[in-house]
Design goal:
about 280 residues; alpha/beta; 6-stranded mixed sheet; two-stranded parallel sheet; 8 strands; globular
Length: about 280
């Protein structure tokens, strides 16, 4: 059983990838700002903060935006880190906008994510304190402003943090699929049994990549898998999605691909060899 990103690591793609980066149209957005060169916290934390705070800024409740972080705080408490839940609640109350204090609180709160996603690693790093410096806070504020501007141009968002279970899902059936290794559950299979996407707009499935490198065939396959899983889910949410898109606020760069251009055999190959539908 794998999530989408784990499955991608296992797959040997054809030369250039199932969906070539060069096939995407690239659009540059220019705000005239150059990011500070150095940041003093890990890039993964910056990425989580930008993702979660963007969801909050475009309309999600702050508790919904940081739900994984709070689940991590609960897990940390269960594993002996006393006061984690109360600390998480305190940090959550301190996230009100894009001011410096809110950004610092968001960074500290996002540090709880690892307890939910990988508690073994969290135990090894239990003493790590996340304290973003001024340059890092400024970068995050710029990234958030870029994300807000991006969604003003390409939005509005119709869904965030979406998943691929069928309508009126009975999760006992998902458990049975995982246990038996047979069948499907909406867009999920025994091979790819978990995974969730970032954002949907009226006609585009978006992935936000807050990374210092350019996108690769791993990111394009992730998008393609999400689109295919959405179609297999049968949910109306995905029926009007005709484009795939990536936004990287570090480069202020948009990548777009029209799904009408994709060869049918490419879709079939990913269905058969990557997601493994029956």
């Amino acid at each position: 059983m794998n999530n989408v990103t784990d499955r991608i690591k296992q797959v040997k793609q054809p030369y250039g990838g199932y969906l070539k980066v060069s096939d995407f149209r690239v659009i540059m957005l220019d705000d005239g700002i150059t990011l500070n060169e150095d940041e003093n916290i890990h890039g993964s934390i910056v990425g989580l903060v930008v993702d979660y705070m963007t969801r909050f800024l475009i309309g999600s409740d702050v508790q919904d935006a940081f739900v994984i972080s709070m689940k991590g705080a609960i897990k940390a408490e269960e594993m002996g880190i006393e006061g984690s839940v109360e600390k998480g609640k305190e940090l959550l109350r301190g996230i009100t906008g894009t001011d410096a204090a809110s950004v610092v609180n968001a960074c500290k709160l996002a540090g709880f994510d690892v307890w939910y996603r990988n508690p073994r690693n969290a135990l090894r790093a239990a003493g790590y304190e996340i304290n973003p410096d001024e340059a890092t806070v400024q970068n995050i504020q710029t990234l958030l402003n870029r994300c807000r501007t991006f969604f003003e141009k390409y939005g509005p968002v119709t869904a965030s943090g979406f998943t691929f279970e069928p309508e009126n899902a009975e999760f006992d059936k998902w458990i049975e699929m995982c246990r038996s290794g047979k069948g499907t559950f909406g867009g999920y299979t025994p091979t790819v049994c978990t995974g969730d996407g970032d954002y949907l707009t009226a006609d585009t499935l978006w992935d936000m990549k807050v990374i210092k490198s350019r996108i690769t065939s791993k990111e394009t396959l992730q998008l393609l898998m999400y689109w295919i899983m959405g179609q297999h889910s049968g949910r109306d949410l995905f029926k009007g999605i005709t484009r795939l898109g990536v936004f990287n606020p570090r480069y202020n760069q948009v990548y777009l691909y029209d799904m009408h251009d994709i060869p049918a055999e490419t879709v079939r190959a990913v269905e058969r060899d990557v997601i493994c539908y029956d």
